[in-house]
Amino acid sequence: DSLAGDDDDSLAGDDDDSLAGDDDDSQDNFEGDQPGECADGADNDQDGLFDCDDPNCAGSPDCAGDDDSSPNDGSPIITNVTYVWIPGTSTFEFSIQIEDYDCDLTPVTLFYAISQNPLAPLAPAGDASPNCATTYTFDLQILNAAPGLSYPVTLAVEDSAGNRSQEYSLVAQVPS
Questions:
Q1: pLDDT class for 38, splitting at 50, 70, 90?
Q2: CA–CA distance from 56 to each of 10, 11, 44, 107, 122 (Å)?
Q3: Would you give the DSSP letter of residue 57?
Q4: pLDDT digit string (tens) for 50-107?
Q5: Strand order in the sheet with 120-121
């Protein structure tokens, strides 16, 4: 039952189970230096930080960027939506904040649906510059809108690689 000198249970000097690497010249070993390390559930560089919690994985497409070790499949994320009613125009002006950790919001296509209608695309927005986070503003006109009525609105965004966000739903209220 002795740990010292017991080859099967040795914690120090057991070359077969080395976690830090077998070579003395492995000074470039850090989380994320090999494909998949930012989503493998291991502390590859033994600094106490796992996967997306390790700053070396910042910007990795495997990380959602929210410091909670959540992998991301490269789809954009709608982080916030606000709107204002423009009186006399039957129009809501929406502002949508988007993040995309593989930085291909170049351009994006915004999708919307009012009530139970299927999602429909708006014109692509943005330019050809790499973009990881941005805010877009767009107008939606509601025909026959009346004061005090509310309208369920569903939004989504698709990046230039064709990855679509999860749907974001809210209820837009016309002021009384």
A1: confident
A2: 31, 27, 11, 28, 37
A3: G
A4: 777 777 777 676 675 444 444 456 788 899 999 999 988 999 999 999 888 777 777 7
A5: 120-121, 109-114, 150-158, 168-173
Q: Which CATH class is domain 77-173?
A: mainly beta
**DSSP label at 12?**
S
User: Which residue shows structure tokens 């017991």?
Assistant: 6
Answer yes or no: are the C-beta atoms of 106 and 112 closer than 8 Å: no
Q: Number of H helices and number of E strands within the chain? A: 0, 7
CATH 2.60.40.10-classified regions of the chain: 77-173
Q: How far is CA 99 from CA 22, 109, 125, 144, 175, in A?
A: 39, 14, 14, 34, 30
